[in-house]
Amino acid sequence: MAEDRLSSVDRMQEGIRLFRMKRWDMALKEFQQVTTDEFDTKDNAELAYYLGLCYTKLAKYDDALLYLEQVVTAEDDLLRIYQCRMTLAYIYVLTRRSKMAEFELKRLQISGFESAMLYNTLAYAAWSQKHYKNSVQMYEKALELDEENTTAMNGLGYVLSDADIDVMRGLRLCRKAVDKKPENPAYLDSLGWAYFKSGELLEARTWLRRALDLAPQEKEIKNHFRVVSGGVD
Prior knowledge:
- This protein has 233 residues and is mainly alpha-helical.
- The protein has helices at residues 8-20, 24-32, 41-57, 61-74, 78-94, 98-110, 116-128, 132-145, 150-162, 167-180, 185-197, 201-214, 219-228.
- The protein is 75% helix and 0% strand.
């Protein structure tokens, strides 16, 4: 019964503590029990921020969007707005709403917030709409900001190879990403596909088999391996 007498401020603090411990479901329960009768605009924005992030972590994306959109309209902390817009873009990409993702990211770009992550997400959104040249440009910008960014290396390598823009450069970039992170199944998949696009079927099967062993449920890896193996698993 003592738990029922916790104040909203106490629940907020407990929720934040649990959130920092990565106990998303427990943190969410605390935040959901907060009453905002005595909260000001800043307190409400903070509650919306944590609710949005909890729902994102728990893959409840429609709920997350509701709260994150509140934050970007009410918050005056620029770094928090940046984080929330990036999270919104991430959700839109995951839920195949690429144009909405681009909208959020371009708002950040216009505001002067540049990062490799921003350009990587823009690149992925462009790729998902089959805007391959734009995707290449965005990955190139990410690498300009961080030349060792493996996400950009892998993404650029994959697009260059898959879209037959520059298969050999794509293969080199995919190889470099795998050299840096040899246990990443997405990178192994990209390398295998780049070898396939270059006509090296034995290498393609070898790398895609490794990717599939690490991530047997990934549909794209399974599809690539099936194509390269001639339909034989």
